[in-house]
Amino acid sequence: MYERIMILIMALILDLVFGDPHNWFHPVMAMGRAIEWLEGFLRKVCHISEEAEEDKVKKRIAGGILVVIELLVFTLIPLVIIYISRMFGETISWAISAFLAYQMLAMKQLKVESMKVFRALQRKDINGAREAVSMIVGRDTKRLNESGIAKAAVETVAENASDGVVAPLLFMMVFGVAGGWFYKAVNTMDSMIGYKNEKYRYFGTVAARLDDLLNFIPARVTALFMVVASAFLNLNWKNAFKIWLRDAKKSTSPNSGQTEAVMAGALGVTLLGDAWYFGKLVKKPEIGDKLREIKPEDIETANRVMYLSVFMIYIVGILIMREVMVVFLWV
Asked: How many CA atoms lie within 13 Å of 225's alpha carbon, on the beta-carbon side?
């Protein structure tokens, strides 16, 4: 347990220092390529069409097979690497484990990418801001005005605070580095094949449901600590708590709505609402009360909420791990 605590501390430091350099190969890229290859292979072998109402059962089975293969491969990879690294001594093993854990965290990169949007909006460069926000959201951005761009960036920070940082962290606290890779593989599959469109409505069912299951606790833990962080940052934490309880279930996702509702309440703005995806307008309910207009500076504030929340979760999580270690030593 002590080893796991030190590895996670080193992983956080690496993330804060390096983020995700664009010229480094990232495991998530490998996960994505594997998903693309497996999807093409399974569609070909199983003779699956892309028509929504055809081959429903076959699509679900093929999608389930993809999930099983992807998880086996990307859970075994860190286990094998760490096992081999132990042959070269404890220091090498810890360093490699910390590096593998760090690659599952995306806190600094989330801030870097969202702050690009903030700086473009500060310069009144709407086209640049649209391009920057298109790198971190899945919606169409060409129609977005300044407030729409800021809202999209804030929503992304709120959502990814959980599934980009806290969720893999919690899985690594409980299950070790391989747990973080397991979670990230599921999350990557959901982001690639978990859509409710004609192509993936049935093929991506298993991936989407598994992602919802794995994010259930992390999303709510993140939301709770965001409320606490809002209090420390002199934001409207009472409103954050109220909106969380009232609006979290309004989101189409059972999990992302948790953190988005807290963020909306803390900032005193509305988030979500109708958005364009792949040329189609998707109707969504708004969350939060519009106490004021959203502004570019809210992106910066959202990042502060995320950072403080993650640091507090790190501290509390490590203290719990330490107590568990003490109990086992006594036993």
From this structure: 23
